[in-house]
Amino acid sequence: MSSSQCFENPPTLSPTSGAGTVQDLGGLNTYLTGPPHSKLAILLISDVFGYEAPNLRKLADKVAAAGFLVAVPDFFFGDPIIKRDDPQFDKESWSKAHNTDKGYEDAKAIIAALKSKGASAIGAAGFCWGGKVAVKLASSTDIKAAVLLHPSRVTEDDINDVKVPIAILGAETDHASPLEQMKQFGEKLSVKSE
């Protein structure tokens, strides 16, 4: 799960933000934007704040403007972690219900749905919680490339399993993905022949 830094400035969610539309894709409500018949698709995987975050949708729209079909699924089924200030909110139960293993399985259904729409090259980018899902996808050939942004709970084993080109973007000061760890990941990846 995310570090406490992430919760200091949560987004105000907006189900109507963005130029795209929300549709069912692979069994999940998904914000879709971009040319619907593009052969190139990007799966954007949110942090724990979910797919209604306006800046995430703005980013999806910018990527779509470059010719990609962009899918931003609701991996939390309408239950993002926005309730963190609620004394009744149980972060541990939420984490168990919305773990990255389930996110990975759900992401595979989204990828299959994108392929059925005609996408022949799919990339994935994951933020924080979504970074763990994206690195799991990068251990398969289901995607062509991955980007991890401020990834959370990514391990050396995850990096060892990577099979596709990957970029890891960490912050200078980040408790969830410290700079030293990001450097270690970079060193591990640099010795891979592929």
UniProtKB/TrEMBL annotation:
Protein name: Dienelactone hydrolase domain-containing protein
Organism placement in taxonomy: Eukaryota, Viridiplantae, Streptophyta, Embryophyta, Tracheophyta
Pfam name, any one: DLH
InterPro entries: Dienelactn_hydro
Start and end residues of each Dienelactone hydrolase domain: 29-190
Region of interest called Disordered, as start-end residue ranges on this chain: 1-20
Single GO molecular function: hydrolase activity
Signal peptide: none
